[in-house]
Amino acid sequence: QVQLVESGGDLVQPGGSLTLSCAASGIIFSIYTMGWYRQAPGKQRELVAAATSGGTTNYADSVKGRFTLSRDNAKNTVHLQMNSLKPEDTAVYYCNAERTVATTRLYFWGQGTQVTVSS
Questions:
Q1: What is the pLDDT of residue 115?
Q2: Cα 60 from Cα 119, distance rounded (Å)
Q3: What are the DSSP calls for 77-102, one per residue?
Q4: Tens digit of pLDDT per residue, the chain (119 long)?
Q5: How far separated are the first and last CA of the chain, in Å rounded?
Q6: 117 beta partners
Q7: DSSP-H helix ranges across 1-119
Q8: pLDDT of residue 55
Q9: What phi and psi, each to the nearest 5 degrees, are found at residue 29?
Q10: How far apart are CA 80 and CA 57, in angstroms?
């Protein structure tokens, strides 16, 4: 049974920092692309950042220079360090594990953690 368990969501003031964590179980963590997505009220879920199994990390333009994704294959965890937070970063943040086998896309989601940026 695959489980992705997020933690770290909170209420933070604009300009503040927060670190989200995701602990994975039930998958061979090292071969999956691990990412963070977010969904704000009334908006579609969007990619925030993702790190491939080969170590390549991509970020949404809106978070470049502010957010840093890191993965620890030994501990099956992925973290999202968020700095200089803005009100528009407010959303539910979801951990994602994904890989493609032949033409089949395998993906798993966590339950989400709320991040609210407000004064």
A1: 98
A2: 24
A3: EEEEEE-S--GGG-EEEEEEEEEEET
A4: 999 999 999 999 999 999 999 999 999 999 999 999 999 999 999 999 999 999 899 999 999 999 999 999 999 999 999 999 999 999 999 999 999 989 999 999 999 999 999 99
A5: 40
A6: 12
A7: none
A8: 85
A9: -55, -45
A10: 12
Residue with tokens 């368990």: 5
> What is the C-alpha to C-alpha distance for residues 21 and 26, in angstroms, rounded to an integer?
17
Q: Exposed, middle or buried: residue 44 (CB in 10 Å: 0-12, 13-18, 19+)?
A: exposed
Distance from C-alpha of 91 to C-alpha of 112, rounded to nearest angstrom: 10
Task: Measure the CA–CA gap between 14 and 101, rounded to whole angstroms.
Answer: 41
Secondary structure of residue 108 in the 3-state scheme = strand
Cα separation, 62 vs 100, in Å, equals: 26
CA atoms within 13 A on the CB side of 36: 35
Instruction: For tokens 């908006």, name the residue.
Output: 43
Single-letter amino acid code for the residue at 81: Q
